[in-house]
Amino acid sequence: MSVTAQSTSGVDRWFGMTARGSNYSREIRGGIVTFFTMAYIVVLNPLIIGTAKDMNGNFIGGGTDVVKAIAMVTAATALLAGLLTILMGVIGRFPIAVAAGLGINGFVAFTLAPQMTWADAMGLVVLEGILILLLVLTGFRSAVFRAVPEQLKYAIGVGIGLFITVIGLVDAGIVRSGVPLISFGVFGELQGWPIFTFCFGLLLTIILVARKTKGAILIGLVATTVLAIIIENVAHVGPKVGADGAVANIVGWGLNVPKMPDSVVATPDLGLLGQFNLFGSFEVIGVIAAMLAVFSLMLSDFFDTMGTAFGLATEADLLEENGDIPHLESILVVDSIAAIAGGAGSTSSNTAYIESAAGIGEGARTGIASIVTGVLFLIAMFFSPLVTIVPYEAAAPALVVVGFLMMTQIRHIDFSDYSIGIPAFLAITIMPFTYSITNGIGAAFVAWCAIKIFTGKIRDINWLMWVISIAFVIYFAINPIKQVFGVG
After folding, report:
1. Rg (CA), the chain
2. Closest C-alpha to 60, from 126, 119, 129
3. Which of 4, 136, 288, 420 has the fewest other C-beta atoms within 10 Å?
4. 239 - beta bridge partners?
5. Distance between CA atoms of 432 and 304, rounded to whole angstroms?
6. What are the residue ranges spanned by the domains of the chain?
7. How many degrees, rounded to 5, is the angle at CA 48 between CA 66 and CA 245?
């Protein structure tokens, strides 16, 4: 046997590619699709972290130049996403991509930073990552996963499917928030070339998936992006949001305008790496307030990844016979390191991305797909202008279709049993309606325990379910608790 054959065989054994029914072609396609469905974070995270100010009125990095702050966050976001996703692929051996977590970055930027310096806020992120890593190394995090009733795990996957469907519809502008609470299109109608582009992409992707075309999601994404570029060149639609952050054109493109940039190369500024103060926040806002902030960050990170990993494993049909996720400990260790690295790199906590489901829908089954995604993020660090070609409307069809694929797991839930059906329903509905996987999981766990208590089945509650349900009660009641202790 040749050296090449031996090497290939070793790679196959480590990643389990043949055992999982995959091949290099599927892994590469899946990795590319995952990258393009979540590449928006390279643009969006800088607009959140890079435009907020700390207690001293400074942008991240300690200056008053917002353009420089955004550039630094862009470089750090792409670098960490690339390195951590590759690490997840090699160590976790699972098709999960990692990047700065949405929701958490908003909490850091608009709740924590205004009360302290940026370095202090990122120090809190590092602390919560260290605590989660300790919970993983002691086996507590895995034990919690195994203590969750099986049908609730499926409900989490279904809820995530509906969640990413809503993300896709909102990104595309089909569903809009405001008054009324949710509206369809623009003034109740589908208007504008961007929404036409989304509809074209959705129909194309649906047809390709229904026909079981290889590369269906990737083909749909690329074809829709090409259409978007053509439309922009002809119709000059322009962006939805102006330079001041306000909506300038309600029928404009979301996030990116699909046109070739003036320059395709950008020199990354990595000046944010290492700018964190581990315990500075304890002096500024007090020990109790700092501990509550760490608790909120930790609980969100803790369950977001567990829910995401189970949902993806279910969609990929990779659950083991006992319902466990392959290499769960390794996945959780890398995710914990990602939280620490996110704080140390000033991008906020990095976590597993549910958009990885798009790559799974394309056939990805191993960590090789994550390596592909990670390499593309590293390339994007130098070619970040190219990432801005794909608008929301071109990427959103992939999320909607993958949402459907994940929703099919609902068949495993017995809704005739109200003790499981009601908690499952809460998980499935609260996730998309609150834009939070953590909120959905928490509501389901608390409701499940409450039903067991008041139906005389208290002995069905595992002690770990008691612990995490009480933790979620504290999480949901965090503001009243702060008022009791007199902290801001």
Report:
1. 22
2. 119
3. 4
4. 253
5. 13
6. 15-485
7. 70
Q: What distance in Å separates the CA atoms of residue 465 and residue 485, rounded to the nearest whole number?
A: 27
Q: Residue 484: count other Cβ atoms within 10 Å of its Cβ.
A: 9
| Integer angstrom CA distances of residue 364 from 15, 22, 76, 380 | 12, 7, 26, 21
Rounded CA gap, 410 and 266, in Å?
Answer: 45
* Per-residue pLDDT tens over the stretch 48-100: 788 788 999 999 988 888 778 888 998 999 999 999 999 999 999 999 999 99
Number of residues that make up the chain? 488
Q: What is the pLDDT of residues 434-449, one digit of tens each?
A: 877 778 888 999 999 9
Give the DSSP H/E element, type plus range, for residue 182.
strand 182-184
What the block records as the tokens of 162 is 């509906």
* pLDDT over threshold 50, residue 2: no
In angstroms, the CA 448 to CA 148 distance is: 10
Q: What are phi and psi of 352, to 5 degrees?
A: -65, 140
What pLDDT was estimated at residue 202?
94
Joined together, the tokens standing for residue 299 give: 């609980």
The per-residue pLDDT of the chain, averaged, comes to 85
Q: Is the pLDDT of residue 326 over 70?
A: yes
Q: What is the pTM of this model?
A: 0.73
**Interval 338-389: pLDDT, tens:** 999 999 999 999 999 888 988 998 899 999 999 999 999 999 888 866 666 7
Count Cβ atoms below 10 Å from residue 430 Cβ, excluding itself. 22
Host H or E run for residue 380: helix 367-382
The answer to whether the beta carbons of residues 436 and 159 sit under 8 Å apart is no
Which alpha helices (H) appear in 236-366, and where do they start and end? 280-285, 287-315, 328-344, 356-361
* Alpha carbons 104 and 125: distance in angstroms, whole number: 9
Classify strands 350-352 and 182-184 as parallel, antiparallel or unpaired.
unpaired
**Which amino acid appears at position 213 of this protein?**
T
Beta-bridged to residue 182, according to DSSP, are 177
Distances (CA, A) of 347 to 47, 286, 432: 11, 24, 24
For residue range 128-162, list pLDDT tens digits in order: 999 999 989 998 878 887 888 888 888 887 887 88
Residues 6 or more apart in contact with residue 339 via CB below 8 angstroms? 125, 126, 128, 129, 132, 133, 301, 349, 350, 351
* Contacts (Cβ under 8 Å, ≥6 apart) of 207: none
